[in-house]
UniProtKB/TrEMBL annotation:
It comes from the Bacteria. This is MFS transporter. The keyword rRNA-binding does not apply. Gene3D superfamilies: MFS general substrate transporter like domains. It comes from Zoogloea oryzae. Pfam families: MFS_3. It is a multi-pass membrane protein. Keywords: Cell membrane, Membrane, Transmembrane, Transmembrane helix, Transport. Residues 233-421 form the Major facilitator superfamily (MFS) profile domain. Its main location: membrane. It is found in: Cell membrane.
Length: 421
């Protein structure tokens, strides 16, 4: 890596081991800006799902909306990773953040003017997904440059995920409160302003110039695909991402159905369900932030798949809101341990020059199959009900657990042999 060394923390300042990457000034600037931006994004996500269900009452539309917001990452993501590795990542991240802010303000305006409908909701979700296809790998691939030292990368990724999950814990209940006091349009506008925090932070970062990939787009793309396909542990991690997000992550699409039809609530109940999942997810990132070695992260990932399967089945059978909230916390914990842990493993094992492409493969499997799972869950729920849909999703994931356990020892051994293992 040829970038200028990242400034260290001022003399005398000590950071806890679980937050050691915050000793780097550049990462602190990113961290603070990202904290505000993520909170706004969660407020918009909950508000958009509530708007879609409020005006149509359709579980299928919830699935279509979630699908459109995520599917571009499956289709565009891998190519975006190859393109990103050839660019000035920080400059393009600022540009994409600006476009995301514009998308939020347009959505707020359309909603305030009562011009929003199913077609426009789908269109705006598709635009959001396209922008996120570039935003997510740009942000993730820059984190290594922000911390400057490879040994701090897993901790920085865990803290970045902690921000996401803290926003997931705080944002949905806050969105429920704001929806009760204001409107969906106001929530979308708040998200638009939240992007300014990260844009300012990125402009203040100094000395970041990650190496760029050489060659044509086709050559760069093929190099990344060859590495991912022929590296067994990378292939297994991607398969695990697909299995988890095609099944367990589908719960998010159906939460408005459970909030209104199963637990006889409204936007506040939806916020509590989201918040419970966020609480579990936040706890998982605290656990991962204290993991220094990749083989320990690998063990946590295997455990997370098991917890996700058990919690998904428990939520589908829960007959009361308190039991459902407990199952949601377990589900949030398990899914987050898997997704965040696999991101830590893939970036920790990958060569620096391939990081943008490896991140794009992660986001493609993570969000693309989340989109497919959500679309499938929405249509199945329309036929057999939300509860039965999640029950069968849990059974399928439990079958995958058996397959994963038969290969877990080899995965742990390979993780311990990697440079950061």
């Amino acid at each position: 890596m040829t970038s200028t060394p990242t400034p260290q923390a001022p003399p005398g300042r000590r950071w806890p081991a679980s937050m050691r990457s915050l000793a780097q000034r550049n990462f602190r600037l990113y961290f603070l800006g990202q904290a505000i931006s993520i909170l706004g994004s969660w407020i918009q996500q909950v508000s958009l799902s509530w708007l879609a269900y409020r005006i149509t009452g359709s579980a299928a539309l919830l699935g279509v909306t979630a699908f459109c917001a995520l599917i571009p990452q499956l289709v565009v993501g891998p190519l975006a990773g190859a393109w990103i590795d050839k660019q000035d990542k920080r400059r393009w991240l600022i540009g994409v953040q600006s476009l995301l802010a514009l998308q939020a303000f347009v959505l707020a305006t359309l909603t305030a003017l009562d011009m929003i409908g199913p077609a426009l909701i789908i269109l705006m979700s598709l635009l959001l997904g396209l922008l996120n296809s570039f935003d997510t790998p740009l942000r993730q691939s820059l984190i290594g440059s922000f911390v400057g030292q490879r040994e701090h990368l897993p901790n920085a990724l865990a803290l970045n995920a902690m921000l996401f999950n803290a926003g997931r814990f705080v944002g949905p209940p806050l969105a429920g409160l704001l929806l009760g006091l204001t409107s969906e349009a106001a929530c979308f506008a708040i998200n638009g302003f939240s992007f300014l925090a990260l844009i300012v932070g990125l402009t203040l970062i100094e000395g970041i110039e990650p190496p760029r990939a050489k060659g044509s787009m086709g050559q760069v793309f093929r190099e990344g695909v060859t590495y991912a396909w022929h590296t067994w542990q990378m292939r297994m991690l991607i398969v695990t991402l697909i299995a988890l997000n095609l099944t367990a992550s589908a719960y998010a699409v159906l939460l408005p159905v459970f909030a209104r039809d199963v637990f006889a609530g409204g936007a506040t109940t939806l916020g509590w369900l989201w918040g419970a999942a966020g609480c579990g997810a936040f706890a998982s990132t605290i656990v991962l932030a204290n993991h220094r070695q990749l083989h320990a992260v690998m063990r946590a990932v295997v455990a997370g798949v098991i917890i996700s399967a058990v919690s998904l089945i428990a939520f589908s059978l829960a007959g009361s809101l308190p039991l459902a909230l407990a199952a949601m916390a377990g589900l949030g914990f398990g899914i987050s341990v898997c997704n965040v842990g696999i991101n830590m493993l893939m970036q920790g094992m990958a060569p620096e020059k391939l990081r943008g492409r490896v991140v794009s493969f992660f986001t493609s499997a993570r969000f693309g199959f989340d989109a497919l799972g959500g679309l499938l869950a929405g249509f199945i729920a329309g036929a057999i009900g939300a509860g039965h849909t999640l029950l069968w999703e849990g059974v399928v994931l439990a079958a995958f657990v058996v397959f994963l356990l038969s290969r877990s020892r080899r995965l742990v051994n390979l993780a311990s042999e990697s440079p950061a293992g």
